[in-house]
Specification:
Elements lengths: L2 E5 L2 E7 L15 E7 L3 H9 L4 E8 L2 H12 L3 E8 L6 E5 L9 E3 L13 H6 L2 E5 L10 H12 L3 E5 L5 H8 L7 E2 L3 H8 L4 H9 L5 E5 L5 E5 L2 E5 L12 H14 L4 H16 L13 H4 L2
Parallel strand pairs: 1-4, 1-8, 2-6, 4-5, 8-9, 9-10, 10-11
Antiparallel strand pairs: 2-3, 6-7, 11-12, 12-13
Helix pairs in contact: 1-8, 6-7, 8-9
Protein name: Sugar kinase, putative
Keywords: Kinase, Transferase
InterPro entries: PfkB_dom, Ribo/fructo_kinase, Ribokinase-like
């Protein structure tokens, strides 16, 4: 496979627009409810497949109906799912997302089988043989906080594999554990809140530069409607977001990662790859769920 996404797999149940939770047994009628494959590994994998990048995903789901759905929908979208392990007696990770009219997304979440993913669940040959390995959600995959996994990443990088990393949560207690991965990745793609918490910096530019000093070749901080900030050894550059109507921000970070990775696969430089990530994220923001708006998105890669 050209790309392997490795880490968090989640089933999302999304509903919009939700202005409040009904009292008692009341019912609110909505415009739309969807169920999708999501999470920092699964969501990125689905988007990569939709924009024409060969991708395999590796992670853990439960031996339950939600796991059946997640594997089925990812395979239907074109992802190689043979690296996803089923954990008996565990629930597949899932989230319920009531989407506000402005696209905001509070959540109810069960972490499930993601917490049990370990080095023994991984196909080492796929990791070392991929052109790009995307680490999705290393803040919550505690079983991979393992010197043996760091050694595997080093082996892959020595063989020429590019390592990218995104996070899942905005929980301060998890940020420092994820920080230990920074010497082992080439590109780190946190959101603004994650970058600030992980670095302890007072502003996003200082946060990006602080994290850059810990090993990555570039740090790309996503800023929501403000676009993204890219820090490299050459300095800091801001890439503006596209002006599009926002329906739901779920999966925009994963879409940005997918577009960025596709840009790297296509031989673009960091800023051009970030531009492709921005364009793919804008597509996803226009619909409900992490795989929304991607019909015809492969054309974005061909547009330069």
């Amino acid at each position: 496979m050209t790309v392997v996404t490795l880490g968090v797999h989640i089933v999302d149940v999304l509903a919009r627009p939700v202005e409040s939770i009904p009292a008692g047994q009341d019912t609110h009628l909505l415009e739309q409810i969807r169920i999708t494959a999501a999470g920092a590994a699964a969501g990125t994998a689905v988007t990569l497949a939709r924009i024409g990048v060969p991708v395999a995903s590796m992670g853990a789901v439960g031996d339950d109906e939600l796991g059946d759905f997640l594997v089925m929908i990812m395979e239907r979208r074109g992802v190689d799912v043979t690296g996803i392990v089923r954990k008996g007696g565990e629930q597949t990770a899932a989230s319920i997302l009531p989407i506000r009219p402005d696209g905001g997304r509070p959540s109810f979440h069960v972490p499930g089988a993601n917490l049990g993913l370990s080095l023994t669940d991984l196909d080492r040959g796929r990791v070392t043989g991929a052109r790009v390995v995307h680490l999705g959600g290393m803040d919550v995959t505690w079983g991979l906080h393992d010197p043996g996994f760091f050694a595997l990443l080093a082996e892959a990088r020595e063989a020429g594999t590019i390592i990218t990393m995104d996070l899942l949560s905005n929980m301060p207690d998890l940020m420092q554990g994820a920080r230990s991965f920074l010497p082992h990745v080439d590109y780190f793609l946190p959101n603004e809140e994650q970058a600030l918490m992980m670095s302890g910096a007072a502003d996003v530019e200082r946060a990006a530069l602080t994290l850059l000093e810990e090993g990555p070749g570039a740090v790309l901080v996503t800023l929501g409607g403000e676009g993204s900030l890219i820090a490299t050894a050459s300095g800091i550059t801001r890439v503006p977001a596209l002006d599009v109507p926002v329906v739901d921000t779920t999966g925009c970070g994963d879409a940005y990662c997918a577009g960025f990775i596709a840009g790297l696969v296509d031989g673009r430089d960091v800023l051009a790859a970030a531009g492709l990530g921005t364009a793919v994220a804008a597509r996803v923001a226009g619909g409900l769920g992490s795989d929304a708006g991607l019909d015809g998105a492969a054309e974005l890669r061909a547009s330069g």
